[in-house]
Every structure is written in structure tokens, then in C-alpha cells.
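Q: Okay, next protein. This is DivIVA domain-containing protein from Corynebacterium comes. I've checked the sequence twice, so it should be correct. Can you predict the 3D structure?
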Amino acid sequence: MFSWLLLVILLIAFVAIGIVFWGSVFGRGEVLPPLDPDETLRANRVAVGTGNLDAVQFELVYRGYRPEQVDDVIAHLSAELKEAQETIARLSYLKKD
């Protein structure tokens, strides 16, 4: 019984030492420099304005994308949608006359 307990304790100790060693040697991964928020917002606004949605880029954070960048793109897309709907309504009104 004691040998099993000793084996489990040694196994836990070796795993803990291995994790600490692995983390100190390799670290948590490459840290990317943060993007300039003004430049990213400007580039996304230009991409949305020209209709090139493939060029929209968001900075990655711990739980997804940076919320202010996503909110800015959504606001510009909704503004363009509203403008397009107003144009369609105006043209359909003119067509009825």
C-alpha cells in the first residue's frame, strides 16, 4: 500500500517539476506587439467604406477580438445599411410617381 502511495506522490512531483521546467524553457508562446488602435480603426473604416470586408482585421485578445474594434466596424456597417435602405426607399418612392 505504501509503495502505491509513494509512486503517486513521486508521479505528481515529477509532473509538477516537468511543467515548471517546460514553462521556463519554452514560455507561454510568442507575444505579439499590440496593434496601433487608431491605425487599425482607420484601416477597418476604409475597408468597410470601400466594401472590402476581407481586409477588416481585429486584434486578438484573451477571449476573442478587441471589442472596441468590432463595435466600430459594426457601427459603420449599420450606418451604411441605413444609408442604403434610405436610398432604396427614396428610389422606390420616385419610381411610383
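A: Here is a summary of the prediction. The longest helix spans residues 67-96. The longest strand covers residues 60-61.
Q: Noted. On to the next one.
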